[in-house]
Design a protein that fits this description.
15% helix; alpha+beta; 3-stranded antiparallel β-sheet; Nucleoside Triphosphate Pyrophosphohydrolase; globular; 4-stranded mixed β-sheet
């Protein structure tokens, strides 16, 4: 039997003043829990393209896929209760006044201080966030 692996992309969007953008999931698994914006790669898409598209669909934030900084791949078996998933995670810095709006698949979208994130995040998003917060961002970098 061959294992099916699904590919996704997640995005850590931060502001220079240390806020992180999270969505409240509007579907299972983890309905009602906070998560990073992200989702499935469509046919013919790179993970960067999927990350930028999902970010815009779920939060209204538009970024150039090339401005997304790769922070790693999370592919541990069991990371998603729906089956085997591999996600590429990206980081981008946006201005603090970037407007947001809950869109596709998001019940709510909110800026959270990186020092006061929800106690529990969906999937392994706490691990992804921890890795992103450890990435040094050079002064003046951003979108």
């Amino acid at each position: 039997m061959t294992e099916t692996i699904r590919y996704t992309a997640d995005v850590v969007i931060m502001t220079p003043d240390g806020h992180v953008l999270l969505i409240e999931r509007d579907w299972e698994p983890y309905e009602g829990q906070w998560a990073l914006p992200g989702g499935h790669q469509d046919e013919g898409e790179t993970s960067r393209m999927a990350a930028a598209r999902e970010l815009q669909e779920e939060t209204g934030v538009l970024v150039d896929p090339e401005q997304l900084r790769a922070i790693g791949t999370w592919d541990q078996p069991g990371r998603d209760p729906r089956g085997r998933y591999s996600t590429d995670a990206y980081l981008a810095l946006v201005p603090a006044d970037t407007p947001i709006v809950a869109g596709d698949d998001a019940r709510t979208v909110r800026w959270w201080p990186a020092t006061r994130l929800p106690a529990q995040l969906a999937f392994d998003h706490a691990d992804i966030l921890a890795a992103a917060l450890a990435v040094p961002i050079p002064p003046g970098e951003g979108i």
